[in-house]
Design goal:
It contains 9 helices and no strands. By secondary structure, the protein is mainly α. The protein has a single domain, classed as AhpD-like (Up-down Bundle), CATH 1.20.1290.
Amino acid sequence: MTLIETLAAVKPGSALAEAMEKRAEILRLSEAAHDAVLIPRDPGGLSHALRAALAARMARHNCNEVLAGHYDGLVERTGGDAATALLAQPGTNVDDTRTAEIVRHADRLTVAPREATRGNIEALRSAGVSDPDIVRLSELAAFVNYQIRVIAGLKLIGARQ
């Protein structure tokens, strides 16, 4: 069973589980995307632990504590320290300018993505975030927010059965 199926509480043998079997390739690709975005071989300037903490934060912004818990565990498994783990909590203040700008942008992409502007990208660059890391951050936000919506949709479908 994939992470999405587990967190959406898809019951084995249910009509939803049968439908999901027919879409196994999508689930397999989602699992691969999870690993590619959160624990890539080359994390660049966004450590695995930072990625996981941001993912947990995004999940909490979307009121998905179960998914946040998955990512909290990943923070720990990837060697995140206490300061990184704190970033998983929305509202956490950050003193480091670079990290603060990364957190602000992750929040923006999760809570108000339509408000993201070229100026926000320039602020990331000014804070020392490289262009490849800006792309990595955008990929992370896109994946986690996709994952949250898929899980929410599957839960709704499952509840109707």
